[in-house]
Amino acid sequence: MLTLSKVTKTYNGEPALDGIDLSLPEDSYVSLLGPSGSGKTTLLRVIAGFETPDAGTIRFGGKVINAVSPHGRGIGFVFQNFALFPHLSVEENIAFGLLNRKHEAVTDRKVVDARVRDMIALVGLTGLEGRATTQISGGQKQRVALARTLVTEPKMVLLDEPLGALDANLRSRMRSELRAIRERCGVTFLHVTGSEAEALAMGDTVLVLDAKKIAQQGYADTIYNRPNSPAVARFLNCYNLFGGRLSDGVFSSAAGPLPVGKFSLPSAQSAYAIRYDRIAIRPREAVAGADEVRIEGTFVASEYTGAAVNSFFQLDDGKVFEVEQHLSHSAPEAYQPQSRYSLVWKKEDALVYG
Ligand SMILES: Nc1ncnc2c1ncn2[C@@H]1O[C@H](COP(=O)(O)OP(=O)(O)OP(=O)(O)O)[C@@H](O)[C@H]1O
């Protein structure tokens, strides 16, 4: 439904977007993930029409929309800080967009009231219609912001870090709320986030932006299991990465030679990656099986994250190596600080780039 080809945007001679090609499906939840400064907000603003690209084409519903004003695009935008009107009630905030939009404003009060009522029910704000927006919680403000956009019946909604202003607890509850609301209204959501956990949890599709380009676009589980470059693997924050060189089925790294399985990915940069949750911690004297890779590390500390425990080991080259054990698989074990352990994984579980 939305296609960008070779879209470029430059600020003061510096590229903020450098040849973006992407294609978003109808009726789906898309997460846009990227490190700070990678161009996420710029990309959203270009799609919304708040910024004009220097080059490239934006097509929406089959039509080129480069020259169409933001109001005429049929694309909604939800801001991180919600941007609600403090002097208007919940209901008035939601009605505002319909009554005052430049394109096809709805002025029949009955139609406005009916649509606002439906929207209030859809986002779960029934009972709070008359409240001032200064008298509702952060999560409720988020719902008002969303309802105010959805009431105008956009074909697509852009959300710029929509959960960024909420505390951690509320953020995880609003993740499933947002997904459910989207499914009910059938509109494509493009959700910008700097959090890999949020992107993978929410998006049917994930777009990874790195250094002003699309580094990878795919299903969330494909990106998680098969990041297509060391940069994407690093950014996902769930892989240990080793630099080095691949030759004759062995990856030579600072941690020693690492045997390689059948799987390798072509990449300009060579690297060896093993996911945190694919590693077993065994006594130092443990011997690796024929299909396994074994290195040694010194235990530093463990950190509980609720469903998992993450343990940190220092390798001989000083690098920190992380292991994640899900508590549903086994009870947590206590490791001795400053003691040496074997860190073992299956050869086939490693991703080798080169
Ligand atoms: N109005 C502007 N004028 C000049 N440079 C800008 C402008 N807006 C963004 N940039 C630059 O463009 C690049 C991309 O910025 P952008 O805000 O899109 O990144 P982001 O991925 O959204 O970052 P963050 O996650 O920190 O919000 C950055 O180098 C930024 O400094």
Count of alpha/pi helices? 8
User: What strand order characterises the main sheet?
Assistant: 6-7-8-3-9-10
The first-to-last residue Cα distance is 35 Å
SSE series? EEEHEEEHHHEHEHEEHHEEEEEEEEEEE
Description:
36% of the residues are buried. The two termini are 35 Å apart. This protein has 354 residues and is an alpha+beta fold. It has 8 helices and 21 strands. The strands form 4 sheets. Strands 6-7-8-3-9-10 form a 6-stranded mixed sheet, with helices on both faces. The protein has a 6-stranded mixed sheet with strand order 13-12-11-15-21-14, covered by helices on one side. Helix 3 crosses helix 4 (138-150). It has helices spanning 40-48, 90-100, 109-122, 138-150, 168-185, 196-202, 220-225, 230-236, and strands at residues 2-11, 14-24, 29-33, 55-60, 63-64, 75-78, 156-160, 188-193, 205-210, 213-219, 239-247, 250-253, 256-259, 264-265, 271-275, 280-283, 292-304, 308-314, 320-326, 340-346, 351-353. The chain folds into 2 domains: 2-224, P-loop containing nucleotide triphosphate hydrolases (Rossmann fold), CATH 3.40.50; 248-353, OB fold (Dihydrolipoamide Acetyltransferase, E2P) (Beta Barrel), CATH 2.40.50.140. The structure holds adenosine-5'-triphosphate. Adenosine-5'-triphosphate (ATP) binds at residues 11-12, 16, 34, 36-42, 194. This is ABC transporter ATP-binding protein.
